TrEMBL record:
It comes from the Bacteria. This is tRNA 2-thiouridine synthesizing protein B. Gene3D superfamilies: DsrEFH-like. It comes from Paraglaciecola chathamensis S18K6. One of its GO terms (cellular component) is sulfurtransferase complex. It holds the Pfam family DsrH. GO terms for biological process: tRNA wobble position uridine thiolation.
Length: 104
């Protein structure tokens, strides 16, 4: 169980392809900093949905970073049951609950 912490925008590089290739069963993905822009990228959201359905990959987004980037509401096309908003305290707890973390 690995927690993938994504800090980069899918609009600026191909990091998400690498993240998706490394995901295994019951991993987690946390979108922080510019990674929250992934919620505005249809291909990334679709891939996150597939990973959750096939491998049980959980997806989280840091609420403070959504607000800081003027993206306070998840886009209408985003399944809010799939992507959970978390606080900084939740984020710290997640890092303790997974066996390993990888920052992208």
């Amino acid at each position: 169980m690995t927690l993938h912490i994504v800090t980069t925008s899918p609009f600026s590089n191909a990091t998400f392809k690498s993240v998706f290739a490394r995901c295994s069963e019951n991993d987690g993905i946390v979108l922080i900093q510019d990674g929250v822009y992934a919620l505005n990228h249809a291909d990334v959201v679709n891939q996150l949905t597939r990973l959750q359905q096939t491998l049980g990959v959980a997806c989280f987004v840091l609420a403070d970073d959504l607000i800081a980037r003027a993206n306070q509401a998840l886009p209408a096309t985003t399944n809010t049951d799939m992507i959970k908003r978390i606080s900084m305290e939740d984020f710290v707890e997640l890092t303790l609950n997974y066996k390993a973390t990888i920052s992208w």
